[in-house]
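Researcher: Quick test of sequence recovery. Tokens follow.
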């Protein structure tokens, strides 16, 4: 801390010297007495401000400009919510969002974006990729330059479209290591892609895992109840993937499977999943929530098995209700002695659905 008070004029006499910021106070006797203040103190103070406010402080004096320029990488990131980044086949553009564009949406091609904004020290709200092919690497090379050579920081990163080749899935860890830091990641997979992931689970083991990871099956407009032999995965591989014990820390938030029919969900799926949970050495590796839409027979068999377990039972309203209705689930709780519990939620009136929630008390 500074041992004596200093006037604003003293702030002009600043020298950055190694690990400390040294302030020399001129006096009438021209004494060379000096005070030292740790950069961490300045950083701690500025970290309470929004990024935009911190940058305004650079205009106050050379002193503040020097401090902020030196600590740029440690200060808060700007919350950049005006635009979404959209990558769609051979195009990549920033899409301006209402209410920030009162006259409608405006888009800016990535190749012209230097004239519009700079993404260095920013947190983008959303990135949407509608087809994942090798062109994505070319676009993110450009985006990395806009970010000053650093990875793009994103709150929500979503891959909606198909991968041009399923083998591109194994490149995902390298892609995120080089280009993107995402807080939340959502990936939509077709069933050929899902089968590939089940056979190559390392494709989704990212070097810097997001805080929340959501996996969604994707099958276009095909009817949920129409039989399709392509919509198939091996149930044992599927179960092992859902409770992969090789994952050290859980970041897998949700897995949503809305297209599974009776040729996919075996009658004893619920029983196998419960037994896997009870015997797992690390329930933290499980998806926190799994939602499976299936045939009514699968729900009936699951309910008969759970009822015979004589578990705690209650009715719980869907934690994620739709916009116009809510679902009530028969919920059965299976508890372990180490504080972990599994909720099995069944609904067969409005739809045929099984949910699994893994919780730690």
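Model:
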């Amino acid at each position: 801390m500074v041992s004596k008070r200093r006037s604003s004029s003293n702030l002009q006499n600043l020298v950055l010297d190694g690990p400390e910021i040294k302030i020399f106070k001129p006096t009438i006797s021209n004494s060379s007495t000096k005070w030292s203040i740790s950069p961490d103190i300045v950083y701690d103070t500025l970290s309470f401000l929004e990024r935009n406010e911190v940058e305004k402080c650079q205009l106050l004096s050379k002193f503040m400009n020097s401090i902020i320029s030196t600590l740029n990488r440690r200060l808060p990131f700007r919350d950049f919510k005006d635009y979404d980044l959209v990558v769609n086949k051979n195009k990549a553009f920033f899409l301006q969002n209402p209410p920030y564009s009162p006259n409608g949406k405006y888009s800016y091609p990535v190749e012209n974006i230097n004239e519009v904004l700079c993404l260095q020290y920013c947190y983008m709200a959303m990135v949407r990729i509608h087809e994942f092919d090798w062109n994505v690497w070319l676009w993110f090379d450009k985006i990395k330059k806009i970010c000053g050579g650093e990875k793009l920081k994103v709150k929500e990163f979503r891959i909606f479209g198909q991968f041009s080749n399923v083998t591109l899935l194994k490149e995902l860890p390298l892609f995120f290591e080089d280009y993107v830091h995402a807080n939340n990641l959502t990936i939509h997979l077709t069933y050929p892609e899902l089968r590939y992931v089940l056979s190559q689970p390392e494709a989704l083991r990212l070097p810097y895992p997001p805080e929340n990871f959501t996996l969604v099956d994707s099958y276009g407009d095909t009817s949920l109840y129409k039989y399709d032999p392509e919509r198939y995965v091996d149930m044992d591989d599927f179960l092992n993937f859902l409770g992969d014990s090789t994952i050290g820390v859980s970041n897998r938030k949700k897995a949503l499977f809305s297209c599974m029919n009776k040729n996919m969900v075996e009658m004893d799926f619920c029983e196998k999943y419960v037994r896997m949970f009870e015997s797992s050495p690390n329930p933290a590796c499980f998806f926190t929530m799994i939602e499976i839409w299936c045939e009514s027979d699968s729900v009936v068999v699951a309910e008969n098995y759970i009822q015979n377990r004589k578990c705690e039972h209650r009715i719980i309203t869907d934690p994620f209700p739709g916009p116009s209705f809510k679902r009530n689930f028969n919920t059965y709780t299976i508890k372990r002695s180490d504080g972990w519990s599994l909720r099995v939620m069944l609904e067969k009136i409005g739809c045929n659905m099984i949910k699994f929630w893994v919780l730690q008390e």
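The CA atoms of residues 48 and 76 lie 8 Å apart.
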